[in-house]
Amino acid sequence: MARRVRDEHARYARPSKHGSRPRSKQRPEHADSVAGLIVGVDRGRYTLVLDEGGPDEREILAMKARELSRTRAVVGDVVDVVGDTSGREGTLARIVRITERTSVLRRTADDNDPYERIVVANADQLVVVVALAQPEPRTGMIDRCVVAAYDAGMDVLLCLTKADLSSPDELRDLYTPLGVEVVVARRDAADTVEAVREHLLGRTSVLVGHSGVGKSTLINALVPDAARATGVVNDVTGRGRHTSTSAVALRLPVSAGSTGGTHDGWVIDTPGVRSFGLAHVEVAHLLAAFEDLDEVAAQCPRGCTHLADAPDCALDEWVDGAPDEVSRTTRASRLTSFRRLLVSRTATV
Q1: Angle at 294 between CA 199 and CA 208, to 5 degrees
Q2: What's the CA gap between 183 and 186, in Å, rounded?
């Protein structure tokens, strides 16, 4: 008779219906665990980088321990792993802990969906990739990405592609008042990649955008060995085809003038999206991203929506009370931009 192999998690599992042994609340400390960064997820298997930047840096494959079966682990998470962490072919380590996240970029399928989908963890910059033509830009989608980034405490970079087909001036003027940095990418322009790269150095940046906007093409230019699949835009629908099927973190190669290090940052490619639900975003979180408006809004009456039709909104008084015409124009532009984002939480895109 074959010898029964004991499952080390069995004593932590909930007792069966007919069992009498109480469930133990004790958990192993896993003092021998090592930290790793999740750079890819594929059907329940996680690709991790261990000892990042160190002499023993290596990639390993891991799965979640049973006690984490209901906990979502995503690209960007820093986790503790045990087991065989050598990285040799055929080995599989086990994720036993997910460390506290510094940021979480979330979205929902729509504004009525209570289920939050975590896009990535621990990124500090959201790069919204938008084509100026083929397909045409959709400001509603951009607004929603900006709202989600501000809710997560992330900076926002608007990367405008295909600038040789249309002028970027209108979109630049629309988002500059929001504090969004804008970089323009032109096809076959030698300085385009470097212009984008400067905004990514030393950061963990996640790229999002509709299919067909040139996101994968841009990543292949930034990370030459990424080999991300690229697609084309349908001439009838004006929409692109999904070429990225899962999020993946890629090292930004060290530039010629860089001093030390194995890479200059991380870029996270994500699948193309057609919607960005914001059911999880609260008005207070969005307002907090605008420190000047947040301070003024404290004087608003209780229950104020801060929208254009809100009675006695202190934000309107703030604009009217500007000391000069220049300041009034600046404040009005800032308030209009904020209200546009506020409306985008429930608008259809």
Answers
A1: 35
A2: 10
* Token pair recorded at residue 116: 């939050």
Structural domains in the chain plus CATH codes: 30-98 (2.40.50.140), 104-269 (3.40.50.300), 283-344 (no CATH)
Say whether 208 sits in a helix, a strand or coil: strand
Other CB atoms within 10 A of residue 200 CB: 21
DSSP letter at 12 equals: G
With a threshold of 0.85, does the pTM exceed it? Answer: no
- What's the distance, CA 252 to chain centroid? 17
Residues 6+ apart with CB under 8 A from 98: 68, 71, 73, 77, 78, 79
Instruction: Tell me the pairing of strands 34-42 and 78-82.
Output: antiparallel
Q: 224-257 pLDDT, tens per residue?
A: 887 655 544 444 334 444 445 678 999 998 875 5
How far apart CA 331 and CA 310 sit, in angstroms, is 17
- CA pair distance 221, 196, nearest whole angstrom: 10
- How far apart are the C-alpha atoms of 59 and 72, rounded to whole Å? 21
Q: Say how far apart CA 183 and CA 201 lie, in whole Å.
A: 14
Single out the residue of 326, 327, 331 nearest to residue 315, CA to CA. Answer: 331
Average pLDDT in the chain? 84
Higher pLDDT, 230 or 338: 338
